[in-house]
C-alpha cells in the first residue's frame, strides 16, 4: 500500500519558454533533501519540527503507530472495496473465483444466488410445524377432526370447534356426533380448565376417538 501525505507534496512550474518546456522547481533549490525524504526528514536535518505540541510524543508510541496503521488499512479497504468497486473490480473478483467467465457460468452463479436467497426467505417466512410441541390430547383431537373431514367432506380450516361441529353434525349419525362433541368438551376442559388432569383426560379421549371411528364406518 502506497501512502502519500499532503505535507510531503511539493509544487513546481513547467513553463513553455522560447518553444521549449522548462521545469522550475524551487523546492529542489531550497531543500533538495525534501524531494527524497519528505518534509519531516528535511526539518529534522535543520533541527526543527513540523509541529510541536504536548501530544507530539504520542506519534512515536507503539500503540499510536498501531492504531494509525489500522485506520490507514481501514481507509484503504473502504476505498478499494466500496468506493472503487466498479464493474472492472467485480469482473476481476469473479474471474479469480470462477476462472474465465462464460454465459453458462454466470447463469449458474445467478441462479444459485437466487436459490440461496429464496431458501433463506422460505426458512424465515414459511410457518414452522408445531407437531412436536402438541400435547397427546391435542393430537387425538386433530386425528378425530381429520376423520370427520374425510367422512363429511367439510374442512375445519380456521373455524372454532363449536362452529365446525354445527356444520358437520347434520352430516353424521347420532353416535358419531356425540363422540365428536365429547372429544371437543374433554379437550377444552383439559386445555383451558384443568391442565393438571391431562393424564386422566387423554385415555378417555382415546376411547372416544375409537368410538368415533367406529361410528363413522
TrEMBL record:
Coiled coil: none
Keyword tags: Membrane, Transmembrane, Transmembrane helix
Gene3D superfamilies named in the record: 3.10.620.30
Transmembrane domains' residue ranges: 108-126
Protein name, entry field: Transglutaminase family protein
Organism: marine sediment metagenome
